[in-house]
Amino acid sequence: MTQDDGPQELSFQPKFFANPSQNKTVTISELYKQLKKLSKELNGLEQETVDTQSLDTVTQQLLAPSLLKHKEAGIVAYATCCIADILRLYAPEAPYSDSEIKTIFNVFIDQLQLLGDQNNQFFPLREYLLTSLATVRTPALVAMLPDSEQIVSRFFTVLFGVVKPDQPHNIQMQILDVLQQLLEEPKSVPQDVIDVILLQFTKRRQQDNPAAHQLASDLANATADILQKYIYQYFNDVIVNASQLRAGQMSNENDVSGQRKERVTSMNSSLDDLRSAHYLILELNKSAPGTLLNVIPQLEEELCVEDVDVRILATGVLGEMFAEKGFTLAKRYESTWKTWKGRRSDTSQLVRIQWVEHAASFYQHQPQLSRELNDYIAEKLNDVDEKVRQATCHSLGALEINQSVQAAIGEGVIEALGERCKDRKPSVRSEAIISLAAMYSQVYDELESGNMASRNKWGGIPSKIFMLRYINDPDIDSKVESILTGAILNFTKIKDDRSRCQRLLFVFSSLTPKARNGFFSYMRRQRDAIKLTDMYLELCEKQKVSDNAESSGVIDQQLRLVVLKISSLFPEKAKMESALAQLASLHDTDVYKGIRETMDPKNDFKAVRKHQKSSLKRLSSIAPSLLETTAPIWKCVGLTTINRVLVPHLIEHTSSSASHSASSSNNNSGQFAAAAETLLGYITNVFPEMLCSSSSELFDTAELSAGDAVATEERLALMVRFAKAIPNSVPRSADLEPQLVSFVRTGTLRQAKYSAYLLTQMTGSEAQCAVLTGDMVDNLDNHHIERRSPSFAALSRFARYAPKAFAKYADRVGQYLVQSVLMDPLGEVDMDGAVENDSMDVSEDSEWISRQSLDEGGLVKVYAVKVLTNWLVGMERQMLTRESVQMVLGTLRQLIRRGGEMQQDRRTRMPHCNHLLLTAASCMLKLASFTHFEKALNSADMLSLSMVVQAPCYEVRSTFLLKKLVPALVSRRIHVRYIPAIFLVAYDVEPVLRDNIKHVVEQRLSQFRPTPGSPSVVEDSLCRFLYILAHHPDWDDAQPVATLELFTPYIEFYISCVCMAQNVSLLFCYAGELKAYRNRPAVDGINKQTTNDAFTRRLYVLSELSQYLLREKSISSNWPVNVYPGKLTLSTDIFEPLSDTEKAAVPREPFLDPGFISKRAKTPAAARSGVNKRNRAKSVAAPTAPAAASGDGSSKPLSKRPRSLSGSKKASKGKESAGDGDSDDDAEIAEDVGMSSVAETSDEE
């Protein structure tokens, strides 16, 4: 039927009831037929064409309670579908009263509640009902009801309850339509509805019914403009009520105990409400941010309230919201964004922690926005509160660093994080080290690929970590060791040895010179720990088998000492001591064997890891309480960083063939060659056993002939190191020996001296060494040879290591070297200033050039000194003659006292003089390491060597001090009488030298004591130091006040290095004891005209000056100066004790000039040291070159007499590279004395 045919009428008139009262229906089967037929016809009618009058009877019949409350579910389902169609056909009006509509919708809701059962036979009817409601917009009728809140609330409750993830999508969309209509049509939304919607965003609801959560999200987004004010009101009520309750509870401070407990419970409850509300805000921000437009300003207000908990919640919520939406939200709410950033400076550490944790997450989620926060995050890394600093470090370490995160993190943040690795708090240090290492591990691929931007920003991380070794803190060292093979080298994840070697070389090649020293120092720390652990295991085994009470007591005492030393390497020293004592008592051979195998240099990486795990597993089974405490020992001694399996690959990188292949391919072998060379040198010095299995590759002659001269020299140097470490390790082969002989005869200087040494270590090569020595001696004066320095260098090796071959030529060679070489005027400056035989490319005012840059005449003289010294060192003691010793010592004395000159009336060019001075001083120090030569050195020699520390040339004094004197003292190779010389750096213009010496004294020398409980060697050196000062050429008896002002900084520097509250009384007593002695008469090569009485008086003046300065230090530091209970004696080699009569004759009046005391008292403490040091740096001499001293003892103005310390590190730049044959990086090498350069090889001999 079309519209032109007239209105449609309902043709079927159903009979539902068995009586007129409609309280009884027809049979169920008949009722089903009637309802089905009616439903079908109603479904076919169109709203636009239907004659609604034909529906009047059915409309009222369908409301009969006997139908809507029928016990058969299907009857009710059909009835509701028919009513839904009636409403569709009558729309937009309804043929029912308000009460009837209310009844109808309650029945509808009851039917919709059954939508969850999709297997029910009547499910299609309920789905039809839902579809009708959604499409006809029937829920609009609810909005017209005067009290619709209850029905609307029921709708939301039921529909959110029936929606399921497995429902068809169309049903979920229709539910969404119905709910959306219920929000759009009414003038207001019931609070219960808001509660139901927000309930779907709770964590539990999301987990239980994710479909309901999605429905709520879609609904909120679709009706955001409607829900905004209601959601704002909801959160406002919750937040305001909870905040007011907390404020009221906090104000009741005078509650009794029971009330206080109830108040705390109430506050906690209100805080939980606040947390729940803020959690909902976060979830809404993720799913329906449009509903929060009015809530965000409310959160901004929370950032500034007094309640700390509220500020924490608001800071966290806004932090997550900004991280979620980024620039969009920050730009829209600029005030909120600015206020949130301001919380970084909140007075509460908890708020600052919350802020920085979320700020750091911006790198991950909002890299572009995070750029605004770089400076602020760096600021939090320097926060006054350690927990804030720790949280910042942790947050940065937790980042997953991709390319966008790499670009976002500022260099300032990385620098600040590196500084936190040195934080004074262990928890911060630990977190910073772990975070920095984790970052490096994640960016490593970018660094290895050659990304320069990444290398500039991230490549310095290993250097920052290895520089921590300079702090010398067991806690830091243990932490670095724990992450070394993990995040930095990643050896635990890398499976093949070649890749491990590549990673090690890449990391090592990126290190700064100081960081490389730190790396080596960590390895040396491992070596020291291995030695101590091996001693510990031996004593444990001896203790187990010992059956003698006396020997057991000795072993126990030795074991306690070793345990103390091992424990000092780790944090929580007391716990480690106890654990090691318990471990020793276990006597478990499996654990002991496991530790030994772990630190055996002959084991490969896999074997070390295997033994680590097995021994720790064994320990956990027999003594689980010891596992956590002692595990760091396994990490420390386990050779998992430097391992023998890396050696073949390192040798491959150092080979000339690898370098050539690198130049024609894309691999990194050429780039890593120098790093591999350095690492192999270190391994050779520290763990030479690792090279034993690779000795054939090391001594491969093909590598000696394949490369250029420099590559050949480096390979020979490596062979020398190995040969020194492993006796009789140089193989004698048909190829190697002739090659070495050829280098000795025709090679470069370094090739000749290295090859000569290798020949001396080759079994059966004595005859060859004798032939070569004879040939060289025969050609000593052959001036037709273009370059004689290689022969002299080789001869110095033969003199030292092949003494029998050299012995028959020794006297002849010695006389020639002294008279014809060292006394030769070649290369010297005549009195008119003309330079003879000038072959050096250097300006006339240069005071230093590298040894390689010296001309032939200079090199010959330097190696002549070395030949003479090695002659004495190489000869057996019983074969030495007095004449030979005096000739060599006399030569060295002249060179040292005359500043590198052999003759006082000649003027050698400064580069020659300085090299000869350095060489002579180094050689005398070498002789001092042998007891029989030490006895031949007198106090004048000690004074002369001390003055080298103040040489005008920076390279001379720094090299002698840091690479010669200090290492010899630390290793105890020379007598402690040379310790005072190091304090003469007090006036050095380079602060790094002073800092190095202070570090060495505090960390190393102060630990040395001749016997337990006795004064340390640096404490005992005070009087020797005063003796040196008394003989210093800058002392002027005619100007006492100026002299005291000049010498005060020396003693102040000594005090700053040595003096503590525990030893100030001892030092005070040492200084006072000096007045019980006189200066022992001796030859003084510096102050020839000064009488012995004058020296003694100077000593007494310095004695009182020292006590005055010690008392001054004690007062400023609040240290008590007590009477020292022990008896002290001074060294009789330089001091002569006074008899009782002589002591009584010592004048009672003060020796310290009153004018000095008066002037010092008027000068502020802050100004005193600054003025003295500044003046000294400008005008005070380093009295190193005695040739420049007048030696006449005449009094001169102090401002004119001293010679200036003109040679500084900065002044020397541009004149030479760091590649001096003797040393590299002199100024930085000894911040930890153990950190001497591995480049210090046989060049030093």
Automatic annotation (TrEMBL):
<protein>
    <submittedName>
        <fullName>Sister chromatid cohesion protein pds5</fullName>
    </submittedName>
</protein>
<dbReference type="GO" id="GO:0005634">
    <property type="term" value="C:nucleus"/>
</dbReference>
<keyword id="KW-0132">Cell division</keyword>
<feature type="coiled-coil region">
    <location>
        <begin position="28"/>
        <end position="55"/>
    </location>
</feature>
<dbReference type="GO" id="GO:0007064">
    <property type="term" value="P:mitotic sister chromatid cohesion"/>
</dbReference>
<feature type="compositionally biased region" description="Acidic residues">
    <location>
        <begin position="1219"/>
        <end position="1231"/>
    </location>
</feature>
<keyword id="KW-0539">Nucleus</keyword>
<dbReference type="GO" id="GO:0000785">
    <property type="term" value="C:chromatin"/>
</dbReference>
<keyword id="KW-0131">Cell cycle</keyword>
<dbReference type="Pfam" id="PF20168">
    <property type="entry name" value="PDS5"/>
</dbReference>
<dbReference type="InterPro" id="IPR011989">
    <property type="entry name" value="ARM-like"/>
</dbReference>
<feature type="region of interest" description="Disordered">
    <location>
        <begin position="1162"/>
        <end position="1245"/>
    </location>
</feature>
<dbReference type="InterPro" id="IPR039776">
    <property type="entry name" value="Pds5"/>
</dbReference>
<keyword id="KW-0175">Coiled coil</keyword>
<keyword id="KW-0498">Mitosis</keyword>
<dbReference type="GO" id="GO:0006281">
    <property type="term" value="P:DNA repair"/>
</dbReference>
<dbReference type="InterPro" id="IPR016024">
    <property type="entry name" value="ARM-type_fold"/>
</dbReference>
<dbReference type="GO" id="GO:0051301">
    <property type="term" value="P:cell division"/>
</dbReference>
